[in-house]
Design a protein that fits this description.
Strand order of the largest sheet: 1-2-3-4-5-6-8-7
Strand content: 25-35%
Radius of gyration: 16 Å
Structural class: alpha+beta
Number of strands: 8
Distance between the termini: 22 Å
Helix content: 25-40%
Number of domains: 1
Shape: globular
């Protein structure tokens, strides 16, 4: 994809506390920023993001997550400037399931703990869903912990149609991406740590 097309996807949003945050497509040079974000996540956030505990994100994994084709694989990152340095504070991504027709994609969202409860997860979901629809994706597939009621509320608050089933102690979700449901409302301010992470990561 041409750089000019990707530039159209860059947007600035404001968190509930008024801070501006830039949301843009991921770039290959974001790999170390993704690793740094992982290092700042709480154990709870890591578990809800990966459905397991992990100690680190390797260089190889960070590179894989930062180098995408922007078609079958896409990620939006939320960044914030602190002290003249750019930090990735949230990520939303999808990966199209090979052979699915119409296209469905496994999806993931994670927000750094200290930026949760401020609506950032909602903004990321909105941006990713809009991009996915424009690129022929009809639904996101997600797996979350069966007892993660807050994440379910986040997804349900999007207004997107959801189908769910219990699978080996986890909830398997199918989230439809109909164009008329793309307006994602503001997230509930009652969300606590790790509630804006949803959806098992692609791969």
């Amino acid at each position: 994809m041409e750089s000019g097309e990707l530039e159209k996807e860059i947007t600035t949003v404001r968190l509930r506390d008024g801070r501006p945050v830039l949301i843009r497509p991921v770039r290959p040079d974001d790999a170390p920023r993704l690793q740094a974000l992982f290092g700042r996540l709480s154990r709870e956030s890591i578990y809800y993001r990966f459905l397991e505990f992990r100690k680190e994100m390797t260089n190889e994994e960070a590179k894989r997550l930062a180098e995408l084709d922007y078609q079958a694989q896409m990620a939006m990152v939320a960044t914030h400037q602190l002290g003249g340095e750019e930090y990735v504070i949230g990520v939303a991504r999808y990966a199209v399931v090979p052979g699915s027709e119409p296209a469905e994609a496994e999806a993931a969202i994670v927000v750094e703990d200290c930026y949760q409860n401020l609506g950032l997860g909602t903004h990321l979901l909105n941006c990713l869903a809009a991009y996915a629809v424009d690129h022929g994706v009809c639904a996101f597939l997600a797996t979350i912990c069966f007892d993660n009621a807050r994440v379910l509320r986040l997804i349900r608050s999007s207004g997107l149609p959801i189908q769910s089933r219990l699978d080996s102690g986890a909830l398997a979700l199918r989230i439809g991406l109909e164009r008329e449901a793309q307006a994602v409302p503001e997230a509930s301010p009652r969300r606590s740590a790790a509630t804006e992470e949803a959806l098992k990561p692609p791969g």
